Amino acid sequence: MSLRLSTVILPYRHWSEGGREQWQRAEQLGFHSAYTYDHLSWRSFRDGPWFGAVPTLTAAAAVTDNLRLGTLVTSPNFRHPVPYAKELISLDDISGGRITLGVGAGGTGFDATALGQEPWTPRERADRFAEFVALLDRLLTEDTVSYEGDFYSAHEARNIPGCVQRPRLPFAVAATGPRGLRLAARYGQAWVTTGDPKLYENGTPEQSVQAIRGQVEKLADACAEIGRDAGELDKILLTGFTPDRGRPLESLNAFVDFAGRHQELGFTEIVIHWPIPDSDFAADEKVFEQIAMDAAAQLR
Known about the structure:
By secondary structure, the protein is of the alpha/beta class. The chain has 8 helices and 10 strands. The chain has helices spanning 19-28, 53-63, 81-94, 122-139, 178-187, 205-225, 252-263, 285-298; strands at residues 4-8, 33-36, 68-74, 99-103, 144-148, 153-158, 171-174, 190-193, 234-238, 269-273.
């Protein structure tokens, strides 16, 4: 299978000041998908402009025709499955069935306390994640849902007419631990990883590839446990968080080498961040566009 190339557009630009054109340019460049983060704020962008994921994706859907769109990723940190399912169904309708829901357990950043709660422990995040994904799956596939869980409830929640994509829009489940990988195996149409965060500061690219190979093998084991072929899942690498950092975007050859090493592990989609000056995602836009236009042909 040919390797697909996608991008992440962080929602920090005003729509009237380059935001609209950025999403349109993503389609012109031939990206398979353009995603955005689903956060209330994020890291060094906390004290600057930052817009909501769902309105941003809705606007992007209105100004593009074929580009797939999605979150990378949504988490339970500030979302409830019942109202969120309604938004996703609406977004899938507006886009004509071009939405992918990237979903993860969330972390301990600003989103974790924005609603006034104490940060959840890793165990609590995993518990909520499991219930969040399972309930979203039902809400997006059934006309009426009633449910009483440990964290979420639904009382005759109606989601008619459902998604344009059947039986629902695809889930891309971000996970590296055993419980998350089992969720990906059960509910995912795709699996997402950023690599091993423990290697980001002091690891080597070779160690990172080895760690990711281990994650792929564990995903295969989780699929085997339920009798599913792991080959049914797309495998998505969100770049920028491995020891390689920004080096793959330094030249077309550097990216092709980086992507090829991960394609050999079974990845079907590589996601690169749209360059942002004076940030961790700073890169030469001309090189970025060259990669977007020319890299896929070299990775077939």
